[in-house]
Amino acid sequence: MRKLLAEFKAFAMGGNVLELAVAVILGLAFNAVVQSLVNDVLMNFIAAVFGRPSFDDLVFKVGEGTIRYGSFINAVINFLLVALALFVVVKAFNRARELRGQKVQPPTTRECPYCVTSIPVRAQRCPNCTSEVKGPR
Fold first, then answer.
1. Cα–Cα–Cα angle for 94, 121, 128, rounded to 5 degrees
2. Which residue of 92, 97, 104, 105 shows the fewest CB atoms closer than 10 Å?
3. Are residues 71 and 98 in the same domain?
4. Do residues 121 and 90 share a domain?
5. Domain boundaries, position 111
6. pLDDT per residue as tens digits for the range 12-33
């Protein structure tokens, strides 16, 4: 039982778990910002153009069933607006980094898919397990 508790403690207190927890919390906070941008700003522009901020009431009936195609339209528009908002935010962030002199460098290493060790990006064969790896030449 002590061994199990020691293993759990090592797992729970490991650096990767803490980093993952911070990433999840920051991701949730960032999601709230992006959702607010989409719902409170961009959807209001759509409301100004189309006269309504939501298409949820667009339906048609087929026999006893109701096809809610307006909800689907809303989901597609929401997805596109979130993707656009993320694109603009990431683009602005990268631009700000470049202006401060921090060039975004391409990675110089990658993982070998067979032995999961770090190898140069241009490597054609892993120096550790000698497996042939595909990649840029």
1. 140
2. 105
3. yes
4. no
5. 106-137
6. 776 677 778 788 888 888 888 8
